[in-house]
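Structure tokens please, single chain.
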Amino acid sequence: MSHMRTFEDYLWQTTNRCPGKTAIVCGDAEMTYARLWECIQARADQLRTEGLGPGMPRAIRAGQTAGFLVEYLATHLAGGVAMPMEHDIPDERLHEWEDLAARADIPDGTADILFTTGTTGKSKGVMISHEAIVANAENLMDAQGFSPGLTFIICGPLNHIGSLSKVYPTLMCGSTLHITSGMKDLSAFFAAFDRPGGSGKFATFLVPAGLRMLMTLGGGKLEACADAIDFIETGAAPLGQSDMERLCRLLPKTRLYNTYASTETGIICTHDFNGKKCVAGCLGKPMKHSEIFITEEGTVACRGKTLMSGYVGDPELTAAVLRDGILFTRDNGAIDEEGMLRLGGRADDVINVGGFKVAPSEVEDAAMSMPDIEDCVCIPLYHPVAGQVPKLLVVTTAGSVFDKKKIARFLHEKLETYKVPAAYEETDRIHRTYNGKIDRGYYRAHAK
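Here you go.
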């Protein structure tokens, strides 16, 4: 791999350029670029001594710490393949993945095996190359304007592409990473803005559920920080129209990006929806290392350097989605007159109502704009006459009364008649993954 340009090559260059600058902040601890690189090198030497060699997979329990990033990057530097795992994964499951990876044919140049959240089935190990990591970083740096004077606040788990992909551009361009542990403690998030010696500009990545929590519980503080927030990126799940508009009102001068990405595709498209084309489902144009087109079936297909190499230990599943350098997704989409990608939900999730196609995400987006609804999911329900019809499961806001007729009337004003749910049910919570995606696999498994 000596001829390859890896992320670690770029990190070494950044360290030479600004060794004394703060690279990582986590709690009360800080690490300069020089200290970070020193720790990575020392740990890589240890790993080589312990027997880690080129192309060998190594499982690492992820954490929201600088120590995890040292372990992760040292694995690369030692020539190994990093397998960041959930921090609380059972030992038996972790060893199963280690054994599978050890037996699998892992392509040369593989940097990571990242694990999907399993919303549409069992979790899969996605092989990511060093080239893809650098391409993802360059896509984001070019499209979103990362700069050395930026502090990027990491809130999500560092074993998934949503947050992990922000480590690369931040450290490549000499910015500062500020790591927090999720959004349960909003004071920790806002403390990043008051760090002594911190930069004047901040950015973050938040999934829609995190953004909604931030706006609901910390909207006043967020608005007070508006001048300091350079940009916010969201992705992983659809951001509703009402949430988009609310965020634009709170942060009128902040760049607000809706991004199309997945573990398999890498970071593909992005769109700043603040002040222009603030439309749910609009995800912008492909970035510099990416291309998209729409298949005859109406689904999104991707080309470019950011694509996965395949699923570890599963060549048949790989061949089903990755052919001739094209990654075929199950996302319904279209390219508008400006060349921007518009998503319409996943093909697997579409509800067929008497021949009409209903995207659950469109129904959910409309319902979420109702003040009485805190959360919801649209699922298919079998009807003895009509066949499939939409059903809406609803979590009401505090103090609101669940009223089926009121919700139906509201949705009739927002949607075509065939898209309006035929049944409604109150529930105490909506099953979601760690990053705010609705766990549709759960609802399919528990369908009645």
